[in-house]
Amino acid sequence: AQKITQTQPGMFVQEKEAVTLDCTYDTSDQSYGLFWYKQPSSGEMIFLIYQGSYDEQNATEGRYSLNFQKARKSANLVISASQLGDSAMYFCAMREGRGDYKLSFGAGTTVTVRA
Amino acid sequence: DSGVTQTPKHLITATGQRVTLRCSPRSGDLSVYWYQQSLDQGLQFLIQYYNGEERAKGNILERFSAQQFPDLHSELNLSSLELGDSALYFCASSVRLAGVGSEQFFGPGTRLTVL
């Protein structure tokens, strides 16, 4: 079964607008971490934001915020005030707390920011 | 720049050959992870080392092996290469295994093309 589901293969957003990228996850662990990464066309993976399962506040990093809804098992990424440089593939990932600390990734969402 | 370095950046080789991919983690990071990104499989975890010891294995083929050396750099060895091994191979590192600070920082990747 898929541990991370990203249902939006591609999205278009107007410059300066906000965009929400959906991510749902599946785990039976109580302790886990959720991550978002950005992959521009150049290929590198850039860490954006982290949310721990016990964190009570939603994580924020600059223009990125994570809308964490534990009961719904969702961890949506919100990018505010989109910029042309935000055009990239975005991956949601999860680390489960069973001693195996690998990241399980979703299929990704391609975001294209229009001027 | 994540601080994780990978060499070479590109590698083109033939079926049946063997290659070695190298990774140097961020200064102070003890944990190294290898991931494979291909069009059909997406991003998949291969193997993890922590302070020189293998910690977890993912979908790593028997033809693939890895190690982490005392200076903490890691090498991924791919042998008897097949066309389907063509992919972007990422190394990531983290200072901790879990909790805040367990963010994995990715290197720029090695793009392997098997002809």
| Residues in β-strands, percent of chain B | over 45%
Unreliable residue stretches of chain B: none
Main β-sheet of chain A: number of strands, strand sense, barrel status?
6 strands, mixed
Q: What does the average pLDDT of chain B come to?
A: 92
Number of strands of chain A: 12
Q: CA-to-CA gap between the ends of chain B? A: 31 Å
SSE string of chain B: EEEEEEEEEEE
Helix content of chain A: under 10%
DSSP helical segment count of chain B: 0
Which consecutive residue ranges of chain A, at least 5 long each, have pLDDT under 50? Answer: none
Characterization of this structure:
- The complex is a heterodimer of chains A (115) and B (115).
- Chain A is built from no helices and twelve strands.
- Chain A has strands spanning 4-5, 10-14, 19-21, 24-25, 32-39, 46-52, 60-61, 64-69, 74-79, 88-96, 103-105, 109-114.
- Chain A starts with a strand and ends with a strand.
- In chain B, strands 2, 4, 5, 6, 9, 10 and 11 form a seven-stranded mixed β-sheet that branches.
- In chain B, a hairpin with a 3-residue loop joins strand 4 (31-38) and strand 5 (42-50).
- The model of chain B has no long low-confidence stretch (mean pLDDT 92).
- Chain B is globular and about 40 Å long.
- The relative contact order of chain B is 0.33.
- By secondary structure, chain B is mainly β.
- The chains are: A mainly beta (115), B mainly beta (115).
- Chain A binds chain B through residues 31, 33, 35, 37, 43-47, 50, 52, 91, 93, 95, 97, 99-105, 107-108, and chain B through 2, 31, 33, 35, 42-45, 48, 55-56, 58, 88, 90, 92, 94, 97-100, 102-109, 111.
